[in-house]
Amino acid sequence: MKATSLIFIQLAVIATVNACTDANATAGAGGTCYCNACYYGTSADVAGVGYCQQCPTGTNSPASTTSGTLITSCTCNDTNSTLKSDNSGCVCKANFYGTPNPTAGGATGCTACPTGTASVTGSTAVTSCACNDINAALKADNSACLCKANFYGTPTTFGASRCTACPSGTISVAGSTDKSYCTCPDVNASLNSATPPACQCNANFYGTPTTSDASGCIACPTGTISAAGSTTKYSCTCPDTNASLNFAIPPVCQCNPNFYGIPTTSGASGCTICPLGQTAPAGSVINICKVALVSSTYILSVVSLIQIIQEKKKTKVNEPVRDADDPQIDLNEDNQVDQLKQVNLLNSLKYYFYFL
Ligand SMILES: *[C@@H]1O[C@H](CO)[C@@H](O)[C@H](O)[C@H]1NC(C)=O
Ligand SMILES: *[C@@H]1O[C@H](CO)[C@@H](O)[C@H](O)[C@H]1NC(C)=O
Ligand SMILES: *[C@@H]1O[C@H](CO)[C@@H](O)[C@H](O)[C@H]1NC(C)=O
Ligand SMILES: *[C@@H]1O[C@H](CO)[C@@H](O)[C@H](O)[C@H]1NC(C)=O
Ligand SMILES: *[C@@H]1O[C@H](CO)[C@@H](O)[C@H](O)[C@H]1NC(C)=O
User: How far is the CA of 202 from the centre of ligand 4 (A)?
Assistant: First the structure.
């Protein structure tokens, strides 16, 4: 017992004199052994168990001045990297990407994510840097964030999204900065100014815009115009206000009834109105206007005829007052009026049959 104690004391004296038995520790103040630089833990000399352990590759620690230093006292040589969760080495810090440079003082192997993006610890590629604006994505060259397709605006670097969705039914390419970049998928349609705006067929088209494939907007017949937003072919009208579409296939503009000429596409009408009292059928190209006696005079004549018959029925037939010199002449004025009416009626009927 005595001998053992003596040996122990002797060893302790030797240890103090010859520094530490833990090869990776150095005696510090009061002769206590502390782990060397790039080591962590507790020296075997202090605890009797354990020993100083080497820091993970690519990390370093200062020479300890206390016992029981943790592995976290080992810091990565690349200042833009940090210890892996299993302490087995270094990885790039959050908001950096790449492979840490293990050599102290060298260039960092961890590159900062582009402005407005963030990455989790341990990211190795720029594609791991996600835009802080949830409606934005990295540009093709990874230099910055842009609003995603079908959104427009300038992405925020923090907080609520500044990329606004395009109006319903419209599309935009990635990187659109303004609402004007939101377009209708139907190439022959455009956004209207309603709230909210909607796609409508362009001017001179009619129909319902489609959201994919072929256009749902059909061009108006050649030579006709329509306002933007027209949905039926009946909205396609002739620019010449004195002309209308005919029923031909395809329909074309022709002068209205009682006009003649060739409709114009702008400016003054190319359709000249018939002289007063004359008519011409729709589509007259040259002046074929004729006196319009057909229906009106015929109706007048029939009315006159009925009147005369009724008058004859009502009143007694007037006795003729014979001219003394010429017995053919009736001097009774009422009878003369009746005769005149009958002559007019006869003329009217003649015209009527001419036009038939
Ligand atoms: C000291 O560290 C080295 C590695 O650097 C290791 O091989 C050796 O075993 C350590 N010595 C002790 C006594 O733990
Ligand atoms: C890390 O840095 C320490 C201290 O400068 C150095 O001793 C060590 O060699 C470095 N590690 C590597 C892997 O270069
Ligand atoms: C770490 O990243 C920052 C930001 O990118 C940079 O300024 C710094 O120089 C980097 N550290 C090293 C050691 O390169
Ligand atoms: C848009 O209209 C033009 C003219 O009518 C037509 O040629 C074109 O095919 C239309 N576009 C689509 C996508 O249908
Ligand atoms: C259509 O005809 C009428 C009657 O002749 C005329 O007053 C009008 O100006 C014409 N319209 C146009 C657009 O020229």
Answer: 11
For the ranges 171-185, 310-324, 334-348, which has the lowest average pLDDT? 334-348
The structural domains of the chain, with segments of one domain joined by +, span: 17-76, 185-237, 239-305
**Share of the chain residues as helix, strand and coil, in percent rounded to the nearest 5:** 20, 20, 55
* Tens of pLDDT, residues 7-32: 343 444 444 444 799 999 999 888 89
190 lines ligand 4 (CB under 6 A): no
Of 352 and 219, the one with more pLDDT: 219
Closest protein CA for atom 1 of ligand 3 = 80
CATH top-level class for 239-305? mainly beta
Q: Can you give the pTM of this predicted structure?
A: 0.61
Strand partners, 82: 91
Among left, alpha and beta (phi > 0; psi -120 to 50; other), residue 355 is: alpha
